[in-house]
Amino acid sequence: PPKKKDIRDYNDADMARLLEQWEKDDDIEEGDLPEHKRPPAPIDFSKIDPGKPESILKLTKKGKTLMMFVTVSGNPTEKETEEITSLWQGSLFNANYDVQRFIVGSNRAIFMLRDGGYAWEIKDFLINQERCADVTLEGQVYPGKGADGSEKVKNKTKPEKSKKKKEAEKKSNGIKEDNRATNQREEL
């Protein structure tokens, strides 16, 4: 049994033990738990359309925080991006969507959603805006109304990889590859 100590003689370890004892008996409501400790929402498989993989993502992201990247078309300054995305955020707020906005570049912003189940509806709203170049959601890039002709490729997925592959192919086409050692030295 722990010794009875005067409260004025408690050190940090004693205070930590006391806090643990208090919290042990507390009933924390499910809504107050951090997101990673909450039980996942049950998925209704009758609502899943096998032809649309987005419907699966929509149901699995329901109730979870989700972020989407939005690019503003043209060559806006950071202030213009702030104003344009603020208008979009206001429109979404008026439609009862809880969205927070963070500017991350001169033409990029992050929209953070408390409930990821609404992400695809918000994405549809954003890509129909005149100044929206593209929206990136769950690794998929959706071109917007404001995208120029070179950007309007339907649903690109991580275009950086394809560029690297093309560069590697160009290099490999110029050099004959085999596993034999050669006497000639190649200059880099």
Automatic annotation (TrEMBL):
Residues 23-32 have a biased composition (Acidic residues). It is found in: Endoplasmic reticulum. Keywords: Chaperone, Endoplasmic reticulum, Signal, Wnt signaling pathway. Residues 148-188 have a biased composition (Basic and acidic residues). One of its GO terms (molecular function) is low-density lipoprotein particle receptor binding. One of its GO terms (cellular component) is endoplasmic reticulum. One of its GO terms (biological process) is Wnt signaling pathway. Residues 21-45, 140-188 are annotated as: Disordered. Its main location: endoplasmic reticulum. InterPro entries: MESD (IPR019330). The keyword Endoplasmic reticulum applies. PANTHER family: LRP CHAPERONE MESD, MESODERM DEVELOPMENT CANDIDATE 2. Belongs to the MESD family. This is LRP chaperone MESD.
